[in-house]
Amino acid sequence: MDTAIDLSDASKALDLSNIRFQLIRLEDTITFYLIERVQFPLNRTIYIPGAVHLPGYDAELSFLDWMLREQERLHSLVRRYQSPDEYPFFPDALQTPILKPLNYPRILHPNNVNVNEKLKHSYVEYILPAACSRRRGGGEDQESIGEGDDRGEAQENYGSAGTVDVFCLQALSRRIHFGKFVAEAKFKTEEERFTRLIKSEDREGIAALITDAVVEEKVLQRLRLKAKTYGTDPSIGAEDTGKINVEAVVAMYKDYVIPLTKEVEVEYLMQRLDTSDAAIQNK
Q1: CA 277 → CA 139, 267, 274, 281, distances in Å?
Q2: What is the pTM of this model?
Q3: H or E element that contains 225
Q4: 87: left (phi > 0), else alpha (psi -120 to 50), else beta?
Q5: What is the DSSP letter of 99?
């Protein structure tokens, strides 16, 4: 699951340099998965509830939802969602692990912040259509791949596209919810200031305090370079049109990943002082 931080040690898990390394590493993971995804057409059918027949399942479930739910059910059996950096899209699908529990230290304050539904909506409605709107091939063989190229269940790679979608969404979710680690680390460095803002329910003030525009711009610049580099065939060089729409990758972070991460940080901090029984029971 692409883990670099030692989650068995709270001090290491909340070290901002370690968190930064993990976030940069996840940029690589997300970019590579998205490059894999855009080799297929958008295949909007797999995101429409009931459009692909799923025997024995709710007709309101889309093909992607079914794949995501089933993988989360399977992965829950091997303790994936006991890890403090993993958050499910379908909590009701989780099963009791067959492996003995790992004894993670308490790293985060108990909370119920989970923005996966917003993430999935943004991915299906905006991120993926933008990324898939590109040209495939070169010269006279170049063809358009995008929203209007779904040839139906019998011909399209629904399973392959859905599989990579699951990888993309889980990596994006992990990246975004790492905002909790950032928020906790920052809270510990300026506890008095954050406490005052939390008590006054000043979400805008909290958002301003956690925002570093310079760092955000560096992230976007780094991501643009990675998408261009990873998406270029070195044997073709400058003539290569690229495997992915670089600006779509940058826009994904600018318009969705960074804002959702901030939302996670702010809402986590809003629960940071909560000592109620309900809060203690949450992950």
Answers
A1: 64, 18, 9, 6
A2: 0.90
A3: helix 213-230
A4: beta
A5: S
